[in-house]
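Thread: quick sanity check before group meeting

JM: Hey all, I'm pulling together slides for Thursday and realized we never actually wrote out the predicted structure for the chain we discussed last week. Dropping the sequence here so it's in one place. If anyone has concerns about the input, flag it before I start.
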Amino acid sequence: MSTTIRIGYVPEHFSTPLYIARDKGYFKETGVNVELVLCPGGTGEMTSKLQDKSLDLAIALTEGLVAGISKGQDFYKIVGTFVDAPLCWALSTGKSSRHTKIESLSKTNVAISRYGSGSHIMAFVLAEQQGWTEPFDFTVLNNFKAMRDGVNDSSCDFFMWETFTTKPYHDAGEVKRIGEITPPWPAFMFAAHRDLLLQGHQREALTAVLEAIGRASKEFMEDRDASVQLVVKMLEYPEQDVRRWFETVHYAPDHRAVSREALEVTLKTLMKADVITTAPDIQTLIDDRVAKLV
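JM (edit): ok, ran it. Output follows.
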């Protein structure tokens, strides 16, 4: 009986290699039954689905995964790195908002997708960078569209979301960009539910799937012109924006590799921003039967 691996991912340009691996048969070649599960709620949604066992593997934000494990979420472990370039977050307000610069956002209401999500955690990182000690108020809105609506109906002051995903809404005048923030760690890592890591044949299946995604990621980056057109077709982004994004993104050459330094920097930043109160041993964040700490 073949292993089934349900992979959670966000519907953004970063995830395009998953479609390549599916459509070109790379997953099929592994003998593993791979199911792609769309998670528009991002990292918070994926960790919730890992917890209720409706996902086996998540491609989620590094800071969300590290914070979750550090706070006692023991149902998953980090098993690799997907995108090793950092993620640039745009800060957006309503189109008619009084806010025109980051400095005015202190002590305001932040729209987030879920508690524990990147949009939640990055608010603490922003406050730490700005030297703000007063806490934000948070409004959980579950998805990107609701967050855009929230800043326009004035129920929230601002939100943070990946720059290129938000750019079409800035260009259209739906929301207003007032700044950006880039944390010093890889954007996305792989996290596997502990049940997937129990037996040797399951870990072998997971390793094969990670290698298939790596093959697709390499192809995606090497065949630049075709990949740009694929993203434009799938997501309807302007071609010039996609080409600009390609200049900033970098997929990990080995999807099983996890940088010790990246995890240390993430923990240090999360501690400084009071997202976590204690930093666990690096080894407890990963499963080294699959992941390779480098």
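AS: nice. Residues 200-222 form the longest helix (23 residues). The CA atoms of residues 106 and 132 lie 7 Å apart.
JM: adding both to the slides.
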